[in-house]
Amino acid sequence: LHAHFIQMKIEEQIYLDYDDVLLKPKRSELGSRQEVNLIREYHFKHSPRVLKGTGIIAANMSTIGNFNMAKMMAKYGMFAALHKFHELKDIINFYDNCNETEYSHTFYTVGINLEDYEKLEWLFTHFGDNMPNILIDCANAYSKKAVEFLKGIRKFYPFSIIMAGNIASSEMTQELLLSGADLVKIGIGPGRNCDTRIITGCGVPQLSAIIECADSAHGIPRGKICGDGGVKTIGDLCKSFAAGADFIMCGSLLAGTDLCEGEWVERDGKKYLVHYGMASKHAQLKYYGEMKEYRASEGEVTEIEYKGTTEDLLKEICGGLRSCCTYIGANSIKEIPKCATFIKVNRIK
Ligand code: 5GP
């Protein structure tokens, strides 16, 4: 008689999200917020380029990742990833006419298809060794196709800083770093307009994903990660840095500010931005004219009320980060993870 045992694989540890924790205030020697240094210097595993900035990146979503946003982000030591739907001539015009900070702070985004190779080749004929920094963005970078694409791009463009994603676990963080990424983008399912967890049942709560992947990346010399998605407040940015994120990508936090591009609608005297996930049916119909039958829509459309100018929000972000540093006794953003202690909470407010 054979007993059949089915062994269920289940990890008992509870994975946490931004809303499950707060940062514990600590005694501090800092005299005032002005003493806090928001700018840090980044050195990378593969690219010889050095970046300076706060580490916050505007997402390559079509309402957010535009040229004006990139310039404004650069003004505050922040970064941007351009969305994939710009014309190449406009991309060239942008890089040809921007200053050095804007140039080095703006990532050119591609997918992982043949046409993406061709677009990069085209840019290379124009820029040569001044090739812009590159974001290789695909919904699931666990795939062999994504890894092979990354290896190819690394070989062709040794000078560019290459960010690649998305993934959300330690072994894949190391695999992408060793395959040529300078910066691995972390996030499966945390995005505000993202339906992946609902449609596929897959994902990892973002705070724990960042803790795990940062630890894994920092075990490789100059390995870096970018937390992507799920930042709803400036406090979440602070928690993300505390968890070990070197960079943080934001979509909906910036959505609704004046530099967003796309459709604005007015209702009852209020103005709203139509903001949508890049894998939503809305985006697929808009950019590809159809929704492929084998694809589910893994994105949502939301309307976000006008929030004021992008510049005011960026100032507020800098203020919040400074204040966080003084609460936990960190002299700079770089010191936040070293100074931070998380407490698990039942509610954040
Ligand atoms: P947010 O800051 O708005 O919470 O998240 C922004 C991130 O959500 C983007 O950088 C991108 O990684 C992710 N994202 C954007 N659109 C979609 C989508 O349609 N589906 C999924 N799964 N993720 C999306």
What features would you describe in this structure?
By secondary structure, the protein is an alpha/beta fold. The chain is 34% helix and 18% strand. It has twelve helices and 15 strands. The strands form four sheets. The chain has an eight-stranded parallel β-barrel with strand order 4-5-6-7-8-9-10-11, surrounded by six helices. A three-stranded antiparallel sheet has the order 12-13-14, with no helix packed on it. It has a two-stranded antiparallel ribbon with strand order 1-15. The mean pLDDT is 95. The structure holds guanosine-5'-monophosphate. Guanosine-5'-monophosphate binds at residues 59, 61, 139, 166, 187, 191-194, 196, 228-231, 249-253, 277-280, 298-299.
SSE inventory with pairings:
Layout: E1 21-23, E2 40-42, E3 51-53, E4 56-58, H1 67-75, E5 79-81, H2 88-97, H3 100-105, E6 106-110, H4 114-127, E7 133-137, H5 144-156, E8 162-167, H6 170-178, E9 183-186, H7 196-200, H8 206-217, E10 224-228, H9 234-242, E11 247-250, E12 264-267, E13 270-276, H10 281-288, E14 301-305, H11 310-328, H12 336-339, E15 342-344
Parallel strand pairs: 4-5, 4-11, 5-6, 6-7, 7-8, 8-9, 9-10, 10-11
Antiparallel strand pairs: 1-15, 2-3, 12-13, 13-14
Helix pairs in contact: 6-8, 9-11
Bound molecules: guanosine-5'-monophosphate.
Guanosine-5'-monophosphate binds next to strand 11.
Question: What's a quick, concise take on this entry?
Answer:
The protein is an alpha/beta fold and 349 residues long. It is built from twelve helices and 15 strands.
